[in-house]
Design brief:
With about 150 residues, the chain is mainly alpha-helical. It has helices spanning about 5-20, 25-40, 45-50, 55-70, 75-85, 90-110, 115-135, 135-150. Helix 1 runs antiparallel to helix 2, helix 4 (about 55-70) packs parallel to helix 7 (about 115-135) and helix 6 (about 90-110) crosses helix 8.
């Protein structure tokens, strides 16, 4: 049996073990599998780097980040902070101030990340803000998309 076959079998075992253990995060699977496939010769280091630098992998990381924001309650904390920031204003002016803050935040973040990543990262926060202030979340999402495109 060649080293590449042994590496493929080991990575399959790791993959099944990580999926069978719900406490382990999905990224842990790749963290364990990457050195196995490199050292056994199943993939070369350039192939592993290509997976790490692919845009679909980055989108997966942003989705996990967005899920962690929602799971930890950070979206509610950020929504409350924005509500305190716009506390004295009410009505249509408060909505416009919220949109202005979202515009600035998504524009600044889009200097670093791609537009779709910015919109994905802002989703839990947008839903929290929209629910608290009774604003249409679809309107806010479209606004963040436009603002990140301009950013």
């Amino acid at each position: 049996m060649s080293m590449a076959t042994i590496g493929a079998i080991l990575t399959l075992i790791v993959f099944v073990a990580v999926l069978a253990t719900p406490k382990l995060p999905n990224w842990f699977c790749f963290l364990i599998m990457a050195p196995i496939v490199v050292f056994t010769g199943t993939m070369d280091a350039d192939g592993v780097y290509a997976v790490l630098s692919s845009s679909s992998f980055h989108l997966t990381i942003i989705c996990m980040f967005s899920g962690m924001i929602a799971a930890t309650g950070l979206d509610i904390v950020m929504g409350n902070a924005l509500d305190k920031l716009t506390g004295n204003v009410s009505g249509k002016k408060k909505e416009m101030l919220i949109f202005a803050i979202l515009y600035l935040a998504s524009g600044l973040v889009s200097f670093v990340l791609q537009n779709s990543y910015v919109a994905m990262a802002f989703l839990p926060v947008i839903f929290s803000i929209a629910k608290k202030n009774k604003i249409s979340h679809s309107k806010m999402i479209l606004f963040v998309i436009y603002a990140s495109t301009l950013g």
